Amino acid sequence: MPVSVPYYFIPSTASTASPLIRIAHRPVSQSIRPRLSPRYITAVRSSSLRNPHYQRQRRLYSMLYAAKSHPASKSSTSASSGITTTTTTSCGTTTTTTASSSQPSEKLIFAPTSNSPDPSGGAIQYTQSTLSLSDLSPSPLTQFHTWYASALSSSVYQPETVTLSTASLLSGRVSARIVFLKELDTRGFVIYSNWATSKKAEDVSTNPHAALTFWWREVERQVRVEGRVERLSESESQVYFDTRIRGSRVGAWASEQSKVLEGREELEERVKKMERRFEGVESIPVPPFWGGLRIVPDVIEFWQGRESRLHDRFRYTRQEGEGEEWKIERLSP
Ligand SMILES: Cc1cc2nc3c(=O)[nH]c(=O)nc-3n(C[C@H](O)[C@H](O)[C@H](O)COP(=O)(O)O)c2cc1C
C-alpha cells in the first residue's frame, strides 16, 4: 500500500379534505370492503376510472385492503398538523404513509422557493461568482485546495462536510451518507470510518469505486469527486486517531457502526467496557477495524452557481500514462 504524507490536514470547524384524507381517517382495522360507496361501484362499472379522484380512492383501498387481509398485519391511523399518517405493521416491517389534508394533491412538497427574496416567488438565484478556464489550476487537487481555503475564509460552515456515495456489487444498490473529509494529500481525499460493520464497509469490499459531493452554500459552489478507494495503513490512521478526543477514540472501539442495537443502554454498556479496557492507557491504539480511506480521484468537477441555472462547470479527467496529466472540459449546466 503506498504511504504518503498528508500535506494538508483538514481542521475541525467549527382544500378541503380530499377523498384520500376522508378514507385515511377511517380506522383501517374495520372492514373495508363494505365501505365502498355506491358512486364508486357505479364508477367502476361505467369504466370512469380515469378520473383521478377514483384512481386515488382505488389505490388507497387496495393498499389498506392488502394490509388488513394479511394475517400478521396491524394498522393505525393518526392525524395532526394537517398531515394524516397511516402506520401499517406487517411481517415485522412497519410502513408509514402520509397525506396532507390542506393540499388538493398528493404532493407534500412542490416547487419550493424557500428563503427566496424574489417577491414574485421565483427560486433563489446564484450570482456570487463566475468560473472560467483561465481561473483553473492544471491540478484539480490544487484547485480543490484553493476552493477549500476560499470556503473557509468565506465562513462556510464546516466545509469538510461531504457526502460519500458507494455502491455494492452485484446488486448495484447505491448508498450515501455524510462524512468529514479529514485529509487532502497529493494522492487524494481521506475520510475516516469503521471498515467492519458499516454499510460503506460492505459496499467498498465489493466495489472499490466511490464518489464525494461537497456543497458550499455560502459561495454557491459544488465539487464532485469520483475515484477508487484505498485503505490507509494502521500507522497512517494512528496519526489522525491520536488527534481525536479520548471519548471519540473509546467510541470508535465501542461502536459496531450501523449494527442494530436493542437500546441506547447496549451502546453505553459497550462504551463502559472499553473505558475499563483502556483505563490508565494514554495512547489508545487505532482499532484494526477502523481507519482512513483515501478516494484517489480520476474525475473531479468544479461547479459555480450562476443566474437562471446557467452554471459554470469544469470537469478534470485523469489521463492515462505517466505523471499527473488532466484533461479539463467545460460542461453544460
Ligand atoms: C456532519 C456529519 C459528519 C459525519 N462524519 C462521519 C465520519 O467522518 N465518519 C463516519 O464514519 N461517519 C460520519 N458520520 C455518520 C455517517 O453519516 C453514517 O451515519 C455512518 O458513517 C454510518 O453509515 P453507513 O452504515 O452507511 O456506512 C457523520 C454524520 C454527519 C451528519
From TrEMBL:
Gene Ontology terms: biological process: pyridoxine biosynthetic process
Pyridoxine 5'-phosphate oxidase dimerisation C-terminal domain mapped to chain residues = 290-333
Name its co-factor(s).
FMN
Q: Which residues form a coiled coil?
A: 257-284
> InterPro entries given for it?
Pyridox_Oxase, Pyridox_Oxase_CS, Pyridox_Oxase_N, Pyridoxamine_oxidase_dimer_C, Split_barrel_FMN-bd
Q: Domain Pyridoxamine 5'-phosphate oxidase N-terminal: where?
A: 158-274
NCBIfam families the record matches = pdxH (TIGR00558), PRK05679.1 (NF004231)
Question: What name does this protein carry?
Answer: pyridoxal 5'-phosphate synthase
Keyword terms? Coiled coil, Flavoprotein, FMN, Oxidoreductase
Region annotation (Disordered) ranges: 72-106
Q: Where is the composition biased (Low complexity)?
A: 75-102
| Enzyme nomenclature, EC number | 1.4.3.5
Q: In which pathway does it act?
A: Cofactor metabolism; pyridoxal 5'-phosphate salvage; pyridoxal 5'-phosphate from pyridoxine 5'-phosphate: step 1/1; Cofactor metabolism; pyridoxal 5'-phosphate salvage; pyridoxal 5'-phosphate from pyridoxamine 5'-phosphate: step 1/1
MF terms (GO), sorted A to Z: FMN binding; pyridoxamine phosphate oxidase activity
Q: Which domain of life is it from?
A: Eukaryota
Q: Which Pfam families match?
A: PNP_phzG_C (PF10590), PNPOx_N (PF01243)
* Annotated organism of origin: Lepidopterella palustris CBS 459.81
